[in-house]
Every structure is written in structure tokens, then in C-alpha cells.
Design a protein that fits this description.
By secondary structure, this protein is α+β, with helices and mostly antiparallel strands. It has two helices and two strands, in the order H-E-H-E.
Amino acid sequence: MTLLRGIERNNNQQAVVNGTLVMSDRPGCRVIAEGVKTMEEYRWLRQRGISLFQGYLFARPGFEELPESFFSRRLIWSNPYFFISPL
């Protein structure tokens, strides 16, 4: 998960992710960004066309219960960068 940490300001990490996106650009292949912690990471990845995300930004892990969802915090609804991709 360190690949995404601070990706918005690290050219080497960006090159790896951009290369992965090029390799996965074919019908039936979708990229999931796992481990997204900050809005900056989310924005950078979303601008590259990624629409599936997982990480602390959206929900923290919970034990024996569903974690509080990012959607329930209302911040998400006022953010123009957020997009829910249909499955």
C-alpha cells in the first residue's frame, strides 16, 4: 500500500501506476485502487480514470461490525471529485 501513499507528489510512483493502467486498458479489466487514505490520493487516481476504491478514506476496518462508511460522513456529497461507478 505504500505505492499510493503521497502519489500526487511522487513521479516514480505515478509512473508505476500509469504503467499499470496502460497494461490494464482492455475490455473486461478494471483497476481497484486499494489503500486510499487521503483526498489528494483519491483525486489523483480518479483523474486517471480509476473508479473503484478501497481504503481508510472510505471506511475504517471494524471488528464484529460494519465500519462507519465515508458516505455517512456527508463530506463526500459536497465533493465534486467523488464519483460512484456503477458495477
